[in-house]
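Worked example 2:
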Amino acid sequence: MIATIDVADIGVRSTMRSLRRRPGPGDVPGLRWLDVAPAVPLAGKRPPGLRRAVLLAMWDDEDAAATFTDTHPLARRFADGGFHAVLRPLRAFGSWPGLPEDVPRNRVTHHEGPVMVATLGRLRLSQTLRFLRASRPAERAAIDADGFLWGTAAARPPFVATVSVWSSDDAAAAYAYGDAQAGHPQAIARQRKKDFHQYSAFIRYAIVSTTGAVSATSPVPDVGRTSRPAGPTSR
């Protein structure tokens, strides 16, 4: 399985169009799952804006992902003024449509270089306040954590997600589990006590390749970047 994540300033009209017309697995060869949501700054208190959007997808293989990226109208909306990452799962916890059961579940991974982490949830709307009270401290802790490079949240309730980039898998693991009293472990404890979500997944990825930038800055160091030039960016 291969995943892709796109983050781009596509404008309000394109975001609305993308939210209304999201292809499913039966519409695109090799697609296992796809969703689009407006981006939200980590630990933000305001509702999602509609200028920046996040596209997350899971694929059978790199060829299917590349064909979609090169040819599909939805992907082309994200091509200019955005960031695109091709990812390989290192570990996962939980379940999600399109996520294979054979992805390793152990906490410890051995990978050199930066990693990307995605948290995905289908929120129980009755648990929204509990979720926000737990997730905001966890997101603030991420921003301040050693090895944190970049991140964003995304929300189109009941779908909620975060995407973050870390300097190493050790840094990502230390944030997630290192201090039981810190924001993220406390959020995990609250979820285990009473689940926020109908279903959810936490996935750590190796970065296969990246192109483009967000607000003129690449979220990922040059390791693994392809040579295709970035499109124009906006702040």
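Residues 116 and 165 are 4 Å apart (CA to CA). The mean pLDDT is 89.
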